[in-house]
Structure formats: structure tokens, C-alpha cells
């Protein structure tokens, strides 16, 4: 019994200690509330298995090296960026899909696509040297359905045409060329037929993907 109380006391002490010392970037934490504002409590494998207060700070690669072909840069991307922790969908219902974003664009799962695309248009207009790439898991089956929604959102003027996308591992135009021509929206679809019918590039004709599934695989017991 005494041992249990002692153990419990130690745990409380550890918790208090954790509460008072955690908070700054890099310090260990139990949950994000233990960290300073703007930080999240997360495990970063390169810093060991204990969760730490972390901050994600994207750096634009073009601010480091200028003038390279588009494909020579590594761009920060998000997957399911709408899936934010703690948000409700545009219709007010709770999002059941897994969440994976704490800081993100304001798009939400059940918003009509046009809302998200209009937000992208506003961003492209406000940031004339930025390029946005969208990779769509495309379930739109209506004739020219995607084209219509991109047009309605006013994004046509930023369209990077698939005819300018090089195949066979060749270099893309430089980012400066894309910016000068205002072709700053790169869109890929998972539906192979749409490159011929709507001019929307088929993802696997131009891109490759690394094997990321292993990141999530549970440890073998
Ligand atoms: C691809 O798009 C076409 C045309 O919109 C549609 O008829 C077809 O069902 C789509 N294929 C898939 C797999 O969604």
C-alpha cells in the first residue's frame, strides 16, 4: 500500500514538474495545453520517442535558391488539409474522418469544393509569386464537372496547361517562367480520362510517390 502511495506521489510530482517546465519549444510535454501558444505536443522521431513541444515552420524553397525548374524544389504539402482537429464541417456536423492538421486552411470536409477553390483564388491573387499544386482524388463523374467548378471559382486564368508538363523525368519550366506567365495553379487528377477530355493532367503520368504506408504501420509484436 505504501509503495502504491509513494508511486502515486512520484507520478504527481512528475506531472507537476512536467507542467511547470514544459512549454517552450523542444521541451517534453503530455499534451498541447502544456506547451506555449502556437506549439503542439508531438513526437518527432529524430528527437526520440518522448513527445515535445514543437513548432512547424515552413520555409519557401524559392527563398533559398532562385530560378530552378519547378520539379527541382521540394515543396511542403498537406494531405487531407481540411481534416483539422477540433473543427466542425461547413454544415455544422462533426467530422468523422481522421484528423491530421492543427494549423491549416479554413476549408472543411463538407464545404462545397467551390468555397475551397475560391479561397485558393484569393490566395493566388494576393500572392503573385506563389504557385499552388492540387492533387485531386477525383470522384467527380459529371461531364466537365471539375472544369465547371474551377471556372466558376475564377481559377482558369491561373491554370498551368498540361501541354506544358514534361514527361519522362524531363525538367519543368522554371518557377520564374510559371510566375511570369501567371500559370501558377498546377492541378492533377486521379481520373485518367480527364486529361484528354478536360485537359486536367493525370497524376501518374507526371508524378511519383514514395512508399509512405510504412510510416503508419504498427510495430510487429
Ligand atoms: C472519370 O471521369 C469520367 C468523366 O467525367 C467519368 O465518366 C468516369 O466515371 C470517371 N471515372 C472514375 C473512376 O471516377
From TrEMBL:
<keyword id="KW-0732">Signal</keyword>
<dbReference type="InterPro" id="IPR017946">
    <property type="entry name" value="PLC-like_Pdiesterase_TIM-brl"/>
</dbReference>
<dbReference type="Pfam" id="PF26178">
    <property type="entry name" value="PI-PLC_cat"/>
</dbReference>
<dbReference type="GO" id="GO:0008081">
    <property type="term" value="F:phosphoric diester hydrolase activity"/>
</dbReference>
<dbReference type="InterPro" id="IPR051057">
    <property type="entry name" value="PI-PLC_domain"/>
</dbReference>
<dbReference type="GO" id="GO:0006629">
    <property type="term" value="P:lipid metabolic process"/>
</dbReference>
<feature type="signal peptide">
    <location>
        <begin position="1"/>
        <end position="22"/>
    </location>
</feature>
<protein>
    <submittedName>
        <fullName>Pi-plc x domain-containing protein</fullName>
    </submittedName>
</protein>
Amino acid at each position: 500500500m505504501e509503495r502504491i502511495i509513494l508511486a502515486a506521489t512520484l507520478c504527481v510530482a512528475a506531472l507537476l514538474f512536467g507542467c511547470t517546465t514544459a512549454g517552450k519549444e523542444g521541451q517534453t510535454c503530455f499534451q498541447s495545453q502544456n506547451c506555449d501558444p502556437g506549439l503542439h505536443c508531438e513526437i518527432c522521431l529524430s528527437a526520440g520517442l518522448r513527445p515535445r513541444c514543437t513548432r512547424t515552420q515552413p520555409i519557401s524553397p524559392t527563398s533559398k535558391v532562385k530560378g530552378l525548374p519547378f520539379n527541382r524544389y521540394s515543396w511542403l504539402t498537406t494531405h487531407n488539409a481540411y481534416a483539422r482537429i477540433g473543427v466542425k464541417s461547413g454544415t455544422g456536423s462533426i467530422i468523422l474522418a481522421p484528423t491530421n492538421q492543427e494549423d491549416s486552411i479554413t476549408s472543411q470536409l463538407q464545404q462545397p469544393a467551390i468555397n475551397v477553390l475560391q479561397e485558393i483564388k484569393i490566395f493566388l491573387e494576393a500572392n503573385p509569386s506563389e504557385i499552388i499544386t492540387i492533387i485531386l482524388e477525383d470522384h467527380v463523374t459529371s461531364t466537365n464537372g471539375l472544369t465547371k467548378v474551377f471556372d466558376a471559382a475564377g481559377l482558369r486564368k491561373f491554370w498551368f496547361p498540361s501541354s506544358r508538363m514534361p514527361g519522362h523525368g524531363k525538367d519543368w519550366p522554371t518557377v520564374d517562367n510559371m510566375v511570369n506567365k501567371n500559370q501558377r495553379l498546377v492541378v492533377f487528377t486521379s481520373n485518367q480520362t480527364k486529361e484528354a477530355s478536360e485537359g486536367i493532367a493525370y497524376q501518374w503520368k507526371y508524378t511519383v510517390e514514395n512508399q509512405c504506408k510504412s510510416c503508419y504501420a504498427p510495430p510487429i509484436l
